[in-house]
Amino acid sequence: MIGRLRGILIEKIAPEILIECNGIGYEVTMPMTSIYALPEINEEAIIYTHFVVREDAQLLYGFANKVERKLFRLVIKVNGVGPKLGLAILSSMSADQFVSCVTHDDLATIVKIPGVGKKTAERLLIEMRDRLKDWQAGGDSSADVFSLNVQQSDTYVNNAKGDATNALVSLGYNQAQADKAIKAIFQAEMTSEDLIRDALKAML
Predict the structure, then answer these.
(1) Model confidence over 71-114: pLDDT tens digits?
(2) What is the mean pLDDT of the chain?
(3) Cα distances (angstroms) measured from residue 1 to each of 20, 31, 73, 198
(4) For 76-172, where are the alpha helices, taking DSSP H only?
(5) What's domain 154-203's architecture?
(6) Quick one: 4-63 is in which CATH superfamily?
(7) CB-based contact 17:1 (threshold 8 Å)
(8) Which one of 51, 88, 111, 192 has the largest count of C-beta atoms within 10 Å of its C-beta?
(9) Are 118 and 80 in contact (CB under 8 A)?
(10) What is the Cβ-side half-sphere exposure of residue 15, based on CA atoms within 13 angstroms?
């Protein structure tokens, strides 16, 4: 089991990153709340991981802190919820925000998450209620963190829009939804992480 990685961040193309640890590059899929908290490229990063082995793939999911990983592990135990949907949930809101939705039976917000229909949302609220009885606020799970300091150019802006759109599609939104959301909040100085964060907020 791979539970934690400490190394140099080589690539960051949401929702995936490449982190080099002792000469080995690990491809890790992360929720957007965790990607927002990462340092800049070529800096050291520490991520907490969850390893999934399937017949056709071995997948490594990463999180900025143990709080997000704990919630991810609880969520994927719900009937009909797998790692992809767990990733979408934690990309749409922080761990504590999700817990608040469960605590207040906020079905309307849960169903706005891509891939979550009404039946799945109801099942999440019912099954997670007992599992989250003793949940403590994470504190460090906030998505309000850094923004990249990158020299802007037309090429960069186009790449930022494309990367943000691709990230939303990989999280479960269709192409039309992703394009519309990015177009609605786009500003030239925004990074791909800014675009994804604001688009996800706008769709909830």
Answers:
(1) 999 999 998 899 999 999 999 888 888 999 999 999 999 998 88
(2) 84
(3) 18, 20, 14, 34
(4) 83-92, 95-103, 107-110, 118-131, 154-170
(5) Orthogonal Bundle (1.10)
(6) Nucleic acid-binding proteins (2.40.50.140)
(7) no
(8) 192
(9) no
(10) 27
Is 167 within 8 Å of 15 (Cβ atoms)?
A: yes
Which single residue is written with the structure tokens 């925004």?
190
- Confidence category of residue 135, pLDDT binned at 50, 70, 90: confident
- The amino acid sitting at 146 is F
Which fold does the domain 66-131 belong to in CATH?
Answer: DNA polymerase; domain 1 (1.10.150)
Three-state SS for 148-175 is: CCCCCCHHHHHHHHHHHHHHHHHCCCCH
3-class secondary-structure state, position 119: helix
